[in-house]
């Protein structure tokens, strides 16, 4: 808004922000001109949307795109590790039950010398799978948190509670009220002055009588 420099100093006293409850605030602007007050409210809301809401949504979008790309990579990596585990288990007769790894008797009989290396590789793949799966879960949690943040920002609404109204008559100055007040105080001062002059005249008379005696 285009305003004079002298008016800018008044804004701090005319704009009031009050917290009603969690996530609910009341913005109040008081100005002599209702139209100007309405423009001030609109300017504040537009500034909030432009400088806070839109940047937050843009940051959220950039972060989410990055996380989704990372999630896709981790999911592909997890699928590859699981395929490797399935292949090595099938080729070497390995069965996994809870935390136990069982090896087929026929395989143990044929290739005893390679059993230790096979089980070692199998264990490394299990650890890698668990680590990648943990990454997938963490990234998914971050994406969900961003979805919640975006929903909160999108849910911000502004409502004009009391629209500006042009008064039907001037609230001040009132000529009739001023004349009535001036007449009342003039009459009161006149009465007080009359009593004071009467008191002063009687006082002088009493002094003069006392002096003659």
Keywords:
213 residues; mainly alpha; two-stranded antiparallel ribbon; rod-shaped
How far is the first residue's CA from the last residue's CA? 84 Å
Q: Percent helix among the residues?
A: over 70%
Oligomer: single chain
Shape: rod-shaped
Order of helices and strands: HHEEHEEHHH
Strand content: 5-15%
Number of helices, where a helix is a run of at least 4 consecutive DSSP H or I residues: 6
Structural class: mainly alpha
Low-confidence stretches: none
| Largest sheet: number of strands, sense, barrel closure | 2 strands, antiparallel
Radius of gyration: 43 Å
Mean pLDDT: 79
Overall number of structural domains: 1
According to DSSP, the number of beta strands is: 4
Going across the biggest sheet, name each strand in turn.
1-2
């Amino acid at each position: 808004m285009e305003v004079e420099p002298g008016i800018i100093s008044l804004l701090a006293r005319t704009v009031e922000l009050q917290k009603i409850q969690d996530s609910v605030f009341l913005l109040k602007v008081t100005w002599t001109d209702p139209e100007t007050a309405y423009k001030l409210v609109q300017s504040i809301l537009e500034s909030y949307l432009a400088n806070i809401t839109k940047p937050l949504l843009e940051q959220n979008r950039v972060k989410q795109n990055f996380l989704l790309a990372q999630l896709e990579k981790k999911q592909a990596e997890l699928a590859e590790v699981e395929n490797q585990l399935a292949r090595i288990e099938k080729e070497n007769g390995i069965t996994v039950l809870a935390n136990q790894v069982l090896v087929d008797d026929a395989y143990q009989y044929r290739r005893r010398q390679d059993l230790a290396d096979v089980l070692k590789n199998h264990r490394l793949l299990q650890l890698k799978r668990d680590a990648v799966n943990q990454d997938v879960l963490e990234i998914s949690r971050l994406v969900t948190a961003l979805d919640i943040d975006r929903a909160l920002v999108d849910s911000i609404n502004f409502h004009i509670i009391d629209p500006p109204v042009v008064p039907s008559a001037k609230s001040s100055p009132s000529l009739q009220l001023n004349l009535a007040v001036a007449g009342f105080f003039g009459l009161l001062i006149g009465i007080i002055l009359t009593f004071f002059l009467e008191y002063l005249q009687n006082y002088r008379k009493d002094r003069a009588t006392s002096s003659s005696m």
